[in-house]
Design goal:
The structure holds two protein chains of two kinds. By secondary structure, chain A is mainly alpha-helical. Chain A contains 13 helices and three strands, in the order E-H-E-E-H-H-H-H-H-H-H-H-H-H-H-H. Chain B has helices spanning 2-28, 32-37, 49-56, 58-91, 97-109, 112-125, 132-155, 160-168, 173-184, 186-202, 205-209, 218-226, 233-251, 258-262, and one strand at 92-93. Classes of the chains: A mainly alpha, B mainly alpha. Strand 1 of chain A pairs parallel with strand 1 (92-93) of chain B.
Chain lengths: 296, 267
C-alpha cells in the first residue's frame, strides 16, 4: 500500500482550504485561551497580567486532581471491559449470509444516537420508579439501599459504566470484525490440517492479524472516553456530589457556571497538553502499524 | 455445538442492546400520567400523543429542522475542503506533510470543552451566535480532520497509474478529479459524508453553547427540559426515539464500510 509518492510542494494549494478552516476553528481559539490563562479579567478592556498564577492555582487544585484521577479510572475501566468484550462479539459474528448485514446494522445503532439521548435512555431505563432495570433490581430485594443512580456513588458508577459499555463496545466489535474478515481462508485451512485447537487459532492467527485494528480501537476508546461530556452530564450531571465529575464536566462547570475565565483557561491548556501527549503516542502507534504488516 | 453456543451469546448481546431502546419506545407510546402510575412491560393503550405534540409544536419540531440544517452545512463544508486535501496527502510528499497530518489528528482528539469559551467569544465577535453556520463551523473542528483521514484511506487504495494515464490523455487536474477520480471513490465519499453527518448530529456541547433559540437543535432542547420540574417522560422518550431515526435510515447504505470509517480510513 505504501506507494511511491510524487514530491511536489504545490500540493499545499490542495491542503490550503483545510488549513484555513481548521485554523479558524483551532488556532485562533487556542490563542484566546492562552491569552485568558495569563490575565485576570474584570470586564471588557479591564484585564491585569498575572503570569503563571492561574497555572499554579490549577496545578494545586485538589478538585482537578480528583477529576483527573476519576478520569484515569474511568478510561482504564472502559478499556478493560470493552476491548475483550468487543473481541468476543467479533469472533461470534456470522461470516456470511443475511446475518452479517443484520449484525452490522444492530451493532451500529447505539453509535448513531445523540450522546445526551444516550444519557436519557439510561435514565429512563434505570430509574427506580419507571425504569425496567431499576424496578427489576429493586424487586429482588438484594441491595441494602434501593438502587438509584442519584443515591450512591457506586450506583452512579455502575450505571455510567453500563451505559458506556452499551454505547461504545459495538465500535470495538466492528473494528475487530473488519480485522477478522481480512484473514485469508488459507490460514484456517492450514490450522485445520495441523489439528490446531480453537485457542491456538485465536492466539496464533486471529490475534496477531487483529493487531492493527486493536491498536486503533484501544487508542480511539482511550481518547474518546478521556473527553467524555454529554453522556454523564445527561445521566448524573457529575453527581452524586462530585463523584462522577470528569475533566470535561469540571471544566465546563468552571468556565460557564462560575465564570472563572483565568483558571478555566489554564485548566484548558493543561488538559489540552495531556491530550496532545496521548495524540502523539496514538500517531506513532498508527505509523508503526502502517509500517509493519498491512492490515488489509 | 460450539457454534450454536456462540450464536446464542450473540443473540443475547443484541437483545441487551435492544432492551434500553425498546424501553424508551415503550415510554414514548404512553402518556405521562400512565407512565408514572403503572409499571408495565408494554404499552397497554398505545397513544401517539407525544409524537403528535412534537410534530405540531414548533419549539419541538424546529429543533430537528435546525439540527438538519447545520449538519448538512457542516457535511458540505467538510467534504468540499477535505477532498482536495486528502488527495494531496495520498499522492504527494510535500514540506511538512507529516506534521500537518499530526496537527489535524490532534484536532480530532481535542476536548471540545477546551474550545467552549473561545468559541463563544469568537462567534460573538463575528455576530454569529445563534446561527446555523456557527455550529456548522464549530463542528468542522473534528469533522474536517476526520473527513481527511477517511478519504485519504480510500484514495490510497486507488492505484496512482490511473492519475498518470489521465494526465497523459490530456485531462486537466480539476476535470480529472471531478469526472474520473471522485466517481472512483464514491463509496469513500458516501462513508465520509455519513460520518460527518453522524458526528455533527450526536454532538451536544458546541450545539448547545452556540445557540439560543433561532438555531437551537433538538439535543439542546432536550437537555433544557431535563432540569425542569414536572418532566414529561413520554415526550422526552418520543424525542429520543425520533433522534435515532435519521441515523437508522442511512446506516443501511454504509453498513459494509462502517469499520473503515471508524478506523479513520485505516483498515
Amino acid at each position: 500500500m505504501m506507494m511511491e509518492k510524487w514530491e511536489d510542494n504545490r500540493a499545499w494549494y490542495l491542503v490550503l482550504p483545510v488549513f484555513v478552516v481548521v485554523a479558524f476553528s483551532a488556532i485562533i481559539p487556542l490563542m484566546t485561551v492562552v491569552n485568558y490563562s495569563l490575565q485576570d479579567i474584570f470586564g471588557p478592556g479591564n484585564a491585569v497580567f498575572v503570569g503563571t498564577e492561574w497555572y499554579k492555582e490549577m496545578l494545586t487544585d485538589t478538585r482537578l486532581h480528583d477529576a483527573l484521577g476519576r478520569q484515569f479510572l474511568f478510561s482504564g475501566l472502559v478499556l478493560l471491559i470493552e476491548i475483550p468484550l468487543g473481541i468476543l462479539i467479533a469472533l461470534a459474528m456470522p461470516k456470511k449470509g443475511w446475518g452479517v448485514s443484520a449484525s452490522l446494522v444492530t451493532l451500529a445503532i447505539p453509535l448513531l444516537i445523540p450522546w445526551n439521548v444516550i444519557g436519557t435512555i439510561w435514565i429512563i431505563f434505570t430509574r427506580p420508579d419507571i425504569g425496567l432495570f431499576g424496578v427489576w433490581i429493586n424487586s429482588l430485594n438484594l441491595l441494602d439501599v434501593p438502587f438509584d443512580h442519584t443515591a450512591r456513588p457506586i450506583y452512579a458508577w455502575i450505571t455510567l459504566m453500563a451505559m458506556e459499555v452499551w454505547h461504545w463496545t459495538p465500535l470495538v466489535a466492528l473494528l475487530c470484525y473488519a480485522g477478522l474478515r481480512a484473514i485469508p481462508e488459507a490460514y484456517y485451512q492450514a490450522a485445520r490440517i495441523d489439528g490446531a485447537s480453537a485457542w491456538a487459532v485465536f492466539r496464533y492467527i486471529q490475534l496477531p492479524k487483529m493487531r492493527g485494528v486493536l491498536t486503533i480501537a484501544v487508542l480511539l476508546r482511550w481518547m474518546d472516553s478521556f473527553l467524555i461530556y454529554a453522556e454523564p452530564f445527561a445521566l448524573t450531571g457529575g453527581g452524586p456530589g462530585n463523584t462522577t465529575t470528569f475533566l470535561s464536566i469540571y471544566l465546563v462547570k468552571l468556565a460557564t457556571g462560575q465564570f472563572d475565565l483565568g483558571p478555566a483557561a489554564a485548566f484548558s491548556l493543561i488538559y489540552f497538553l495531556i491530550v496532545l501527549l496521548f495524540s502523539f503516542i496514538f500517531y506513532q502507534a498508527l505509523l508503526n502499524v502502517g509500517r509493519g504488516e498491512k492490515i488489509s | 455445538m460450539r457454534i450454536r453456543k456462540r450464536t446464542i451469546g450473540l443473540i443475547l448481546y443484541f437483545a441487551l442492546i435492544a432492551v434500553p431502546i425498546y424501553w424508551m419506545l415503550n415510554m414514548s407510546l404512553r402518556n405521562n400520567a400512565d407512565i408514572l402510575s403503572t409499571f408495565s412491560l408494554y404499552p397497554s393503550g398505545i397513544t401517539f400523543g407525544n409524537y403528535v405534540k412534537v410534530f405540531t409544536d414548533p419549539s419541538w419540531y424546529m429543533g430537528y429542522v435546525n439540527a438538519i440544517i447545520y449538519v448538512t452545512i457542516n457535511t458540505v463544508i467538510s467534504l468540499a475542503c477535505a477532498l482536495p486535501a486528502a488527495y494531496a496527502f495520498s499522492r504527494y510528499r510535500f514540506l511538512g506533510d507529516g506534521q500537518m497530518f499530526f496537527w489535524l489528528l490532534t484536532n480530532r482528539m481535542a476536548p471540545p470543552a477546551v474550545f467552549l469559551l473561545p468559541y463563544f467569544q469568537l462567534y460573538s465577535t463575528f455576530n454569529l451566535i445563534d446561527t446555523h453556520i456557527a455550529v456548522a463551523l464549530a463542528h468542522c473542528l473534528f469533522n474536517v480532520p476526520l473527513a481527511v483521514w477517511i478519504l485519504e484511506g480510500f484514495m490510497s487504495g486507488i492505484p496512482k497509474e490511473i492519475d498518470e494515464t489521465a494526465f497523459i490523455d490530456g485531462y486537466s487536474f480539476p476535470r480529472f478529479f471531478i469526472t474520473i477520480f471522485i466517481p472512483l471513490i464514491r463509496a469513500g465519499v458516501g462513508v465520509t459524508a455519513f460520518f460527518c453527518f453522524m458526528f455533527s448530529w450526536v454532538e451536544l456541547l458546541f450545539a448547545r453553547t452556540l445557540t439560543v433559540t433561532a438555531a437551537k437543535p433538538i439535543v439542546a432542547t432536550m437537555t433544557r427540559t431535563i432540569s425542569a420540574t414536572g418532566l414529561d417522560w413520554g415526550l422526552l422518550a418520543a424525542n429520543g426515539i425520533l433522534t435515532i431515526v435519521p441515523g437508522a435510515l442511512v446506516i443501511w447504505f454504509v453498513r459494509n464500510h462502517l469499520a473503515k470509517g471508524f478506523a479513520l480510513g485505516r483498515v
